[in-house]
Amino acid sequence: MTSRVYNVLFICTGNSARSILAEGLLNHLGRGRFQAYSAGSHPRGAVHPLALKELSEPGIPTDGFRSKSWEEFAQPGAPEMDFVFTVCDQAAGEVCPVWPGQPLTAHWGMPDPAAVEGSDDAKQQAFRAAAVTMKRRLELMMSLPLQRLDAMAIHKEVKDIGTR
Fold it and tell me: How confident is the model over 48-85, as pLDDT tens digits?
């Protein structure tokens, strides 16, 4: 039995924190069943250091992460996505590019850990909370019997995950 690899794109406005966390976590947890990418509608140009710290603590490699535009994934020759998730409310409200292959889309919004002000500990706690929330959502998605569900059932399930 051949196992299919699902391409997943996580979108946020700045592509510096939440979408980076999602990309790193899914590539680590997905064990080859998923290939995750991230992008931003208005990329900041740099990945937030606390996002990289949050990924590296459990041993997830952080080499190669960069803040990039979602336009890279709408170009000819870009990987064809199976799923596209917005992880911030601002990106969810923007007009997205047309994605080749008509991927399933859902909104998995969460607070921006990079917007937290205060002590270094408070900032780190915000990144930890975002990573924990994203990890739970990804685990729910990975537990879905994707090869046995039709597109409408999968779409309902991944949309519901974002509201849990």
Answer: 999 999 999 999 999 999 999 999 998 889 999 999 99
Fold observed for domain 6-161: Rossmann fold (3.40.50)
Q: 3-state SS of the chain?
A: CCCCCEEEEEEECCCCCHHHHHHHHHHHHCCCCEEEEEEECCCCCCCCHHHHHHHHCCCCCCCCCCCCEHHHHCCCCCCCCCEEEECCHHHHCCCCCCCCCCCEEEECCCCCHHHCCCCHHHHHHHHHHHHHHHHHHHHHHHCCCCCCCCHHHHHHHHHHHCCC
Active site residues: 12, 88, 96
For the chain, domain boundaries: 6-161
Answering whether pTM is above 0.90, one says yes
